[in-house]
Amino acid sequence: MLSVAYIGEFITLSLMAIALGMDAFSVGLGMGMIPLRLRRIFSIGVVVGLFHVIMPFAGIILGHFLSSHLGSIATYAGGILLLILGVQMFLSSFKDDAGPMIKPIGMGLIVFALSVSLDSFSVGLSLGMSNVRTALTLILFGAFSTILTWGGLLLGKKVRGVLGKYSEMLGGSILCSFGLQLILN
């Protein structure tokens, strides 16, 4: 039987995964404006999902190392880091972008996946400081970012970028709330 603590952690990590995937969703909305075949959309989502597993895993490993050496200060540092990331993500939603400048093929796909998963490294760093379940975190981050990327790309074919700013605002707000939760608990 699942414990209440596990269910709570699952819900928290799912919300964080959604918040981190909002970047991929919003950029996918813009990228979905260019003509892409379904096979290309599938591969873009998979690559973005892989980067949302690799980057937080590296952050979690570094976070475990730092927390073992810094103790409770690391938890506050992780909360502050999440708060800063959330504010940055929220504020970046007000910038006027013309959409993605790279094509999602070859090195352009790698650059795209890296750019939308950089914040997951920092979140992984702060999560590593709080001894989170690594496998659960990586599965949720990878799955949600893949699904949100696909959704953004497919919806981008239908919608002309209206949701992009609002999805980044929502994602930033969620990261801020979890940063505050780490700091205040």
3D structure, described in words:
The radius of gyration is 16 Å and the shape is globular. The two termini are about 25 Å apart. Helix 1 packs parallel to helix 5, helix 2 packs parallel to helix 4 and helix 3 runs antiparallel to helix 4. The model has no long low-confidence stretch (mean pLDDT about 80). Helices cover about 80% and strands about 0% of the residues. The chain has about 180 residues and is mainly α. The protein has one domain: Growth Hormone, Chain: A (Up-down Bundle). The longest helix is centred in the N-terminal third of the chain and has 33 residues. It holds the Pfam family Mntp. It is found in: Cell membrane.
Number of discrete domains: 1
Structural class: mainly alpha
Question: From the alpha-carbon coordinates, what is the Rg to the nearest angstrom?
Answer: 16 Å
Number of strands: 0
CATH third-level topology: Growth Hormone, Chain: A
The end-to-end span amounts to 27 Å
What are the segments in which pLDDT stays under 50 over at least 5 consecutive residues?
none
Average pLDDT across residues? 80
At the first level of CATH, what is the class?
Mainly Alpha
- Along the chain, the helix and strand elements come as HHHHHH
Shape category: globular
Largest sheet: none
Strand content: under 5%
Q: Total helix count?
A: 6
Percentage of residues in helical conformation: over 70%
Instruction: Based on the coordinates given, report the CATH architecture.
Output: Up-down Bundle
